[in-house]
Design a protein that fits this description.
Blueprint lengths: L2 H4 L19 H16 L3 E6 L5 H11 L5 E7 L5 H11 L9 H17 L3 E7 L6 H10 L3 E2 L2 E2 L1 E7 L2 H6 L5 H6 E7 L4 H14 L7 E2 L1 H11 L3 H18 L3 E2 L1 H16 L10 E2 L16 E3 L2 E3 L2 H6 L3 H50 L1
Parallel strand pairs: 1-6, 1-7, 2-3, 3-6, 8-9
Antiparallel strand pairs: 4-5, 10-11, 11-12
Length: 369
């Protein structure tokens, strides 16, 4: 819509992953190196985690596009809330095998035969499971069992598991010890810093054909970083809205006040009302956690005091994250409602029993008298 106004060849800040706009930050280069290392090892699991919109899918798509189909047979599976048997069927289907109305044992035999066939032809088989945080513990264990397929001394299947930080909670479970021993490398992609945020924006504008227009002033880059917390997809959302706003009012140069206005609009739309952004709240980018540590909520400072504030937390969530947290809250409220109902029923029963016991006690007293 606004590309011609700024002299751009295409849209620079689209939300859908596009490998042609890949920006190699330090953390993204590390994650890419881990995946390439896994390809050379041809065994075990590579685990990549990161926040929603951190660029995980872009890295995966770039890797898949770079593979030689004459040497590697890749299956890309986007997981959903499926159990072990359904996950196994999806894996077989991703490699082109018939899995409908087929028993689990037959699927396993067909899959093993397929992997051996590809290995005998000099090809390697790669399974990429995206959104791995949706896998159940049994499904993860099923994937581990697939890694046992061997032809001689060579593993038949290499697996990459890509997911959000919640996936680390699954891996930390005590009964996942055997799976963790099969993980040869794990990497977490954290947010970009201020300098990387600016370099990321400049890179995407250049890829879209920018020759210096639109012009983003230094203070605006820092404002974009604060509004997005350094998450690439949030950066795209803010910048896309910024360029659209400039197009509508005939502006090609942006400062921090322009970014603040756009960020406020996005915040209000995300909450679904006109609640103003709390004055004095500045999102602080949380440190990048290790792949096997618990995820901490973002923290915010107000007059020097650091604490977790619900309103400020909502300000940093995009629509997808807000929906996920709201769904978890609803489930918790339903569980609490069940507990309260059971407790009320128990109290009613106790009161009823007490009422029945009192007349009996009075009758005994009268008889004794």
């Amino acid at each position: 819509m606004y590309e011609a106004y700024y002299g751009l060849k295409n849209k620079p800040f689209q939300l859908n992953p596009d490998p042609s706009f890949y920006f190699g930050s330090r953390q993204h280069r590390r994650a890419t190196a881990y995946l390439e290392y896994g390809m050379h090892q041809n065994e075990g699991f590579i685990v990549i985690t990161g926040e929603v919109g951190a660029g995980k899918t872009t890295i995966v798509r770039g890797l898949l596009e770079s593979l030689d189909p004459e040497k590697v047979v890749a299956a890309h599976l986007v997981s959903t809330q499926l159990d072990a048997d359904d996950t196994l069927r999806l894996v077989g289907a991703a490699f082109g095998l018939r899995t409908k109305d087929v028993s689990k044992s037959d699927i396993l035999m067909s899959l093993e035969a397929f992997l051996i066939s590809m290995t005998s032809k000099g090809k390697r088989c790669l399974l990429v499971v995206d959104e791995a945080q949706n896998l159940t513990a049994r499904a993860v264990e099923e994937l581990r069992m697939l890694s046992n397929f061997q032809f001689g001394n060579h593993a038949l299947l290499q697996s990459f598991l890509i997911g959000q930080p919640e996936f680390r909670g699954i891996l930390q479970s005590p009964h996942m010890m055997q799976f963790r021993q099969r993980v040869i490398a794990a990497c977490h992609i954290g947010p970009l810093d201020v300098a990387e945020t600016q370099a990321y924006i400049e890179h995407r504008l250049k890829c879209a054909g920018s020759t210096g227009i639109p012009k983003i002033l230094p203070a605006a880059y820092e404002a974009i970083f604060k509004a997005s917390s350094g998450i690439p997809r949030r950066i795209n959302s803010v910048c896309d809205r910024l360029l659209l706003s400039g197009y509508l009012i005939g502006k090609k140069e942006f400062n921090d006040s322009d970014v603040d206005e756009v960020a406020r609009e996005i915040y209000e739309e995300t909450l679904g009302d006109s609640t103003p952004l709390p004055a004095g709240y500045t999102p602080a980018v949380p440190p990048s956690p290790s792949p096997y540590t618990n995820l901490n909520l973002p923290r915010f400072s107000n007059t020097g005091e650091t604490y977790e504030d619900p309103v400020a937390l909502l300000a940093t969530l995009n629509v997808e994250q807000f929906g996920e947290r709201l769904a978890r809250l609803e489930r918790s409220l339903l569980q609490l409602e069940k507990i309260n109902t059971a407790t009320l029923g128990l109290l009613q029963q106790l009161v009823s029993n007490d009422i029945q016991l009192k007349p009996a006690a009075v009758q005994t007293e009268n008889t004794n008298a």
